[in-house]
Amino acid sequence: MDKNIRNAILQKYAKVSTNKCIHNIYIFLYAFFAISCFLWITEKRGFFMKVVAFNGSPRKEGNTYLSIGIVVEELQKEGIETEIVQLGGADIRGCRACFKCFENKDRRCIQKDELNSFVGKMIEADGIIIGSPTYFANVSTEVKALIDRAGLVSRANDFLFRRKVGAAVVAVRRAGGTDVYSSINYFFGIGHMIIPGSSYWNLGFGRTPGEVLKDEEGIATFRDLGRNMAWLMKKLYC
Ligand SMILES: Cc1cc2nc3c(=O)[nH]c(=O)nc-3n(C[C@H](O)[C@H](O)[C@H](O)COP(=O)(O)O)c2cc1C
Description:
With 238 residues, this protein is of the alpha/beta class. The protein has 2 domains: 1-45; 48-237, Rossmann fold, CATH 3.40.50.360. Helices cover 52% and strands 13% of the residues. The protein is built from 7 helices and 5 strands; from the N terminus they run αβαβααβαβαβα. The protein has helices at residues 3-45, 63-77, 100-104, 115-124, 141-156, 177-189, 216-237; strands spanning 50-55, 81-86, 127-133, 165-172, 203-205. A 5-stranded parallel β-sheet has the order 2-1-3-4-5, with helices on both faces. It is elongated. The structure holds flavin mononucleotide (FMN). Residues 57, 59, 62-64, 133-137, 171-176, 206-207, 209 line the site of flavin mononucleotide (FMN). Flavin mononucleotide binds next to α2 and β4.
């Protein structure tokens, strides 16, 4: 081949490969910028995180529900997805201490009722709120059933709620609310879960449905709890 023709072809190819190289650098920079923006937005907004909140009162729109609503509002402001599940009034029984969950290790309780669907929601979520009214200075029956059975199924399966964030929300008329707060936090604490604080223990005072909305300090406590829960979840998961 003529030397001049050969040089011309080589020069042409060199130019094409330089253009290709610059093109690839642009693609790389564009992808880097897009991924950085995506990560920044997801961190800022808390995308993809979910909190499931159980209303342990049989009063569907009572003080427990309204208190949970205040926490959930703060979580939503931070871009965290939320779901409120009606637990009070559900047809669930207590733990039978059969320990089949330890034999089967299938993330389920052998009793055939709604409990397993609640456990499923807890497994899927990054954060769990358990709300309960104060009944004779303790949690409602349904909350106790959830704690005992979900707690045992979790332990039987190498701690299903490990490092999820857990928060208690308590409605109380006068006294016994701190016992409810403790009972729920005992459940979180024994299961490798992480508990955010607030500006007071998470209690709202009121007797008839809606009365809790007059408890200004209670409302502020629930707002602070929601903000702290969102902050903690972002630190842990983003
Ligand atoms: C069976 C029962 C037991 C209760 N025991 C207590 C109690 O020990 N201490 C208290 O301050 N309030 C007690 N209360 C009042 C409720 O805790 C209070 O009305 C609360 O706001 C109910 O929440 P809810 O509207 O979500 O159902 C009891 C209510 C019921 C129905």
